[in-house]
């Protein structure tokens, strides 16, 4: 887990804008703090979607972003259950199949953006999450 609560951001009121807020914070964190190179956001295959795709040196990283209130009973990390992992495996396969050259290494990360009412937020980064059910 990483990060500190940072101030000065207006938390959106609807869920779609809240998702964009979290993805923006996650992408910024991964670029600045972890030196990942962002490839794309919101890559879609039908109804399935990958929030962020990035390179960590020679490793392709698929990132699921979860944005929740800091005092939520369940963290964003724990909201990625068996059903979501099945969907993610399917969309990761589709993304890899769309590439001309598949990377030798890839992984799945979760970035949990926890925010408070005052719009302070903290970023938690979980690397190498297994997709087995």
General description of the model:
- This protein is globular.
- The chain has helices at residues 15-32, 82-98, and strands at residues 37-45, 48-56, 59-69, 105-115, 121-126.
- The mean pLDDT is 89.
- A hairpin with a 5-residue loop joins strand 4 and strand 5.
- It has a five-stranded mixed beta sheet, sandwiched between helices.
- The chain has two helices and five strands, in the order αβββαββ.
- The longest helix is centred in the N-terminal third of the chain and has 18 residues, at 15-32.
- It has one domain (15-126): Trna Endonuclease, Chain: A, domain 1, CATH 3.40.1350.10.
- Helix content is 26%, strand content 35%.
- It has 133 residues and is α+β, with helices and mostly antiparallel strands.
């Amino acid at each position: 887990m990483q990060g500190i609560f940072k101030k000065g951001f207006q938390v959106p009121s609807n869920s779609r804008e809240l998702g964009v807020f979290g993805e923006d914070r996650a992408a910024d964190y991964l670029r600045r703090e972890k030196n990942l190179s962002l490839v794309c956001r919101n890559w879609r295959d039908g109804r399935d979607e990958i929030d962020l795709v990035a390179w960590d040196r020679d490793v392709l990283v698929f990132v699921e972003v979860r944005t929740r209130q800091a005092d939520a009973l369940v963290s964003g990390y724990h909201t990625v259950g068996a059903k979501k992992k099945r969907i993610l495996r399917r969309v990761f396969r589709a993304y890899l199949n769309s590439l001309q050259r598949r990377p030798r290494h890839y992984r799945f990360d979760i970035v949990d953006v926890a925010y408070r009412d005052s719009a302070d937020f903290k970023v938690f980064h979980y690397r190498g999450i297994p997709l087995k059910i």
